[in-house]
Amino acid sequence: MLSALPAPLLGLIASTLMLLNILFWVPILLAVSIIKLLLPFKHVRLWIDPLLLRIAEAWIAGNSGWMRLTQKLDWDVTGMESLSPRQWYLVVCNHQSWVDILVLQHVFNRRIPLLKFFLKKELIWVPIMGLAWWALEFPFMRRRSEAYLRQHPEERGQDAATTRAACEKYALVPTSVMNFLEGTRFTAAKHKRQQSPYQHLLKPKAGGITLALDAMGEKFGAVLDVTIAYPDGRPSFLQFLQGHVRQVRVHVRTLPVPRLPNDADQTEAARRELCQNWVNQLWQDKDQLLSSYATKTRG
After folding, report:
1. How far is it, in rounded angstroms, from Cα 37 to Cα 56?
2. Which of 239, 243, 242, 251 lies closest to 296 in space, CA to CA?
3. At what angle do helices 42-70 and 7-38 cross, to 10 degrees?
4. Burial level of 48, CB count in 10 A (0-12/13-18/19+)?
5. pLDDT digits (tens, 9 = 90+) for 126-164
6. CB 110 within 8 A of CB 85
7. What CATH number belongs to 73-298?
8. What is the per-residue DSSP string for 218-266?
9. How much is the CA Rg of the chain, to the nearest whole Å?
10. What is the pTM of this model?
């Protein structure tokens, strides 16, 4: 355990171990992905996709290893009973920090299928990691504003097509489709600008989850509603690497999959409104849970 080292040195060691883990696994990931790219046949996918997932899980296990070595973390995790790596899941979560991704991967690795995140299109250019996300077929979304789409109506529906194409691939092998419904990390400034009705959360968006339900609703066995809290305060990634995070709370609720009507009388807008109402209720419950955590911390 290296957590007693000075914070700058600890951060350097943790960063180095994280980078070495990336440099070891990503080339292997890319090599296998190129085979799949050159042989785009269904029976090849059925063999290679599970192999890619095993490689990614080994990569995540490596991250968990350097975290255990360098961080003195008290994990308070509840609601993990009855999960299966052979089930399809739709996973939703609040978003406070880039640390959330490491937390989710650490908690769920090999307990459920690999989490597939919806990413901003610009992230494909992140050195090394962009290629890794591409190899794992994470969907890259443009997330155009409504004002932009009014000026460029020809681009309307591109994200929907991207989501549907990704979900069609995910239907072949058990997958966990992961969505941060707030669309961005929580900050006090964003919270104020949005005039969010929630004390600890930004407003959730139902667009992505509606598309996922449209494309894979029959495949999903359950919804996992995940709440992450940091009793020491919302950390930056650097603060995490330097060992300033001492406790992480993760609460998982397993919920039935909402069934959206698909009859001709229901417009896309009406279906999205139904999903938005369901998401709003999730967020009310999540906000109450985070308030109870804050009360316990003060107490």
Report:
1. 18
2. 251
3. 170
4. middle
5. 888 988 998 998 887 765 555 544 665 555 566 667 677
6. yes
7. 3.40.1130
8. TT--EEEEEEEE-TT-PPPHHHHHTT---EEEEEEEEEPPP----STTS
9. 20
10. 0.89
